[in-house]
Protein 1
Amino acid sequence: MTALKHLLSIADLGPGGLEDLLDLTDSFVEVSERRIPKVPTLRGKTVVSLFYEESTRTRLSFESAAKRLSADTMNFTVGTSSVKKGESLRDTVTTIEAMGVDAIVVRHASAGVPWQVAQWVGASVINAGDGWHEHPTQAILDCYTIRQRLGSLVDRHIAIVGDVKHSRVARSDVQAFTALGATVTLVAPPTLLPPSLVGWPVTVSHDLDDVLPKVDVVYVLRMQRERMTESLLPSLREYTSTYGLTAERARKLSQHALVMHPGPMNRGVEIAAEVADLPSSVITRQVANGVAVRMAVLFRLLGSGMELAHG
Ligand code: NCD
C-alpha cells in the first residue's frame, strides 16, 4: 500500500486501497468493542474538523474516531467563528494550520473545496462531503457494512433509490460499490437524476416495484430539499407513493436483502418508519461502522510507520 496523504475522492483509493481500508477497519471494530475502546496510536497528533455545513453523524464520528486513537481534536463551527466577520476560507485554513494540525476534516457546500484546502496546507485533508460531489468516508462505511452482512460485494446487485441528483453519497457509493464488483441500478424520477449519466457504470430504472425483488441491497437516499432550487416533484406525497420504501414495498425484497440509508432520514417520505426499524435495516450499523472506518482512514493518513497495537 503506497502512502496516502489525503482522502478526497474514492478514485484516490482504487479497488486495492478500498480493500486495504476495509481490512484495516476490522481491527478498529475490534478496538471499538473493547471495554476501554481506545489505543494510543495517534497520541500527539491533532485532528481539526472544519465544517461549513450542518452535520450530526459525520462530525461526531470523526471526533470519536480521533479520540479512540488518542489524537487531540479541535472543532471549527462556522456559526461561532471569524467567518461571521468575513474571514476568507484561505485565511481561516492558514490560521488553523499555524496552530499545528496534522489532519483537517472538511465539509463544505461547494464542490472542490477539500482539493483547494489540500493545495494550501501541509496537513492531510479528508473530504467529509463537498456539495453534490463526493463523500468518500460514507461510501467506505457503506461498503464495510455490506461486506460485514453479505460477505462480499462481488456480483451483488444494489439499488440506489431517490434523490441521486443532489447526492454526494450516491456519487461516491457508485464508484466504491462498482470498484468492489457490485452492479448498481439507480431508481429515481428523471428530474432527480443527474442531467448526464455518461461515465456512470449504472443502469437506470423508474420502477421500484420491479427492481426490489432482484436486489441484495436497497440504498435509500434522503430527499435533499435544501439543495433544490426549483420544483422537481409534483408533491412529496406523490414521490412517496411512487418511490418511497413503504412497508408494502419492503415485503417485495428477498429475505437476505439489506435496507440502508446514510441519514438523516425523513421517515414517512423516502422510507417508512417501520421499514427503517426492520431487522433487515442496517442503518444504525452503518453509523457504528462509521467510527471504525474513520479510525482506519486517520490511521492510514497519519500513522505511517506506526504499529497497530493489539491486545
Ligand atoms: C449525508 C450528507 O450529508 O451528505 N449525510 C451523512 O453524511 N451521513 C447525506 C444527506 O445529507 O442526505
Note: The CA atoms of residues 90 and 116 lie 9 Å apart.
Protein 2
Amino acid sequence: MRDIVLLGGPGAGKGTQAQILQKQFGFRQISTGDLLREHRNHGTELGKAAEGFMKRGELVPDELIIKMVEGELRDDAGVLFDGFPRTVAQAEALDALLESRGRGMAGAVYFQIDRASLEERLLGRWTNPRTGRVYHETFNPPKVAGIDDEDGGPLVQRDDDKPETIKKRLDVFEAQTMPLVAYYQHSERLAAIDATRPVDEVTHVLLHVLGLDHGH
Ligand code: ADP
Ligand code: AMP
C-alpha cells in the first residue's frame, strides 16, 4: 500500500490515469481540483475562498489545501494524489502528514510533456462534472459528443480551460510546481514517464514504474 503523487502540468493526463488505476487496482484518487470544484459548487466556505484563485488560474493558498487534504485522508487504500502537492510547502506538509499516520513517504511519478501539448489537451478537454471523468474531443472522444459513455450525463468544458487562463495556469505550474521535480529527485522518490504517448501506452509505462504490471 504505497501512496503515489502524480506530478505534472495541467493537462498532462494525471486524472485520466488516476481514474484507470483507481478502477483496476483499488487505489483512491484524491484530486484537489475535483474536491475544490465540489466545494465551489456546494458554496462551502472553502469553495467561496477558493473560487477567485481558480477562476484566475492561480493556486489556492497552501493552508487551505493542506487542511482539505488532511480531512480526506483515511487509513484504507493507497492514495493517488492528483494535482497535489503543487508547491514545496505542500510537499513538505504531505510528507509530515503521511509520516504522522505511519504510512511512509509517497513516491512520485512525473508526467513529462511539452507546453504546446498541454495547451492542446486543455483546449479540447470535456469533463463530467459529477464524476470528474475526462474526455478529449480529438484524442479520447466520447461515443456521442457531449455525453458521458458511462453514466449518460452531459459533459462540460471547464471555465478555466480557456486560452488566457490556460496560459496563466501553465506559467504558475512552471514557477511553483516544477521545483517539486527536484524535491522528489533529491530524496530519490521520482520516476519520470513520457506523457505525450497515447493513453493506453502511458498506462502501460505507469504500471511498469509502479511495479503493478505483473499478471496484467
Ligand atoms: P490532468 O488531470 O493532468 O490535468 P487530464 O487527465 O484531465 O489531465 O487530461 C487532459 C486532457 O488530455 C483530457 O482532455 C484528456 O482526455 C486528454 N488526455 C489525457 N491523457 C492523454 C493522452 N495520453 N493522449 C492524449 N490525450 C490525453
Ligand atoms: P486542477 O483540476 O488540478 O487543474 O485544478 C484546478 C484549480 O484548482 C487550479 O488552477 C488551482 O486554482 C486549484 N488547485 C487545485 N489543486 C491545488 C493545489 N494542490 N494547490 C493550490 N491550488 C490548487
Note: The mean pLDDT is 95.
Protein 3
Amino acid sequence: MKLFADQLAAVVLDATVAETAAVIRAGWPELPRAAIVLGTGLGSLAEHIAIEAEWSYRDLPHFARSTADGHRGRLLAGRLAGVPILAMDGRFHAYEGYSFSQITFPIRVFAEFGVSFLILSNASGGLNPTLRSGDILLIDDHINLMGVFGSSLPAESREPMADSRNTVFPASVLRPLYDARLRNLSVKLAAEENSIPLRRGTYIAMLGPNYETRAEYRWLRTLGDVVGMSTVPEVLAAGELGLPVVAFSMVTNVFRPDDAQQTTSDEVIHAAANAEPNLRRVVTRLLIECDTNSPLAPHPTPLP
Ligand code: HPA
C-alpha cells in the first residue's frame, strides 16, 4: 500500500514537471545548456541576460511564489554570453514555509530540459575570520542544519531509504554533490579573469529566517566557513537527479566576535549587489567554456 502511494506520488510529480516544462517550451522553443539560480541581491545578474522569454512564477503551473526580500520571482529564458540558459530570478526558501518538494520543483523542471549543469548562487554570512564582505566563495561541501532533507517526493509519502527515489544517499556517496570538474574549472577561470579571488569552503545551511545569534555564529564557526538559508535543498535534488552542480556564495557580512553589530537584510542585499560583477564574470566564463569545450556530457540518468 505504502509502495503504491510512493509510486503514485512519483507519477503525479513527473506529470506536474512535464506540465510546467510544456508551458516554458511553448514560449521558448530552445534547448537550454545550463540553468542558473540567482539568490539574494544577485538579481542584477539578470540584467546581463539577453531575455527571450520570461514568466512570473505566478504564471507557471506548480511553481511557488517568491516572498523573500531581494527575490523578484520570475523565470528567465535567454542567453548569457550567447549561451542558452534558463534562470531563476529569485528562489524559494524553507523559511517561507515551502516544503522540500516545492523548493526543488524548478530543479526537476531544469533536469527535464536536459540541462548539462546547474549554477547556484546565494548570499551568506562569513564565519571564517579571513573572509571579507564581498568575497565570492566556491562551495566545496555543506552541512545541512535546516531540518529539511533530501527527497523531492511529498513528505507524506516519504519513507527514508525505502527506495532510491526517496534518498540522495547513494548519489552523494558515489560522487561529491558539488561537481569536482566544475569546481576546478571555476578556480582556473577566476584566476584567468584578472585574478578574481575565489575562496573555497563549507556552507552551513540554517532554516532562518532570522540571522544567527552571537552564540550561534561562534558555534557555527567551528563547523564551516559561511552560513546561509538556502541552496542545500536544490543541491540535494540535483544530486538525486544526477545533475552536476556548482554553487557560489557571496559573503555579505562577516561575523566578528568582538563587534556587537547586527546583520540587516538591507546590508546583505547591498553587499551582494556590489560583489555581483565579479561573480558574473566567473559565471559567464564558465558558461562559455562549457559551451565551447563541452567538458560535461549531458547529465547522466539518476542512479537506479
Ligand atoms: N546568516 C544567514 N544567512 C545569511 C547571512 C547570515 O549572516 N548573511 C547573508 N545570508
Note: Residues 123-125, 211-212, 227-229, 252-253, 263, 268 surround hypoxanthine (CB under 6 Å).
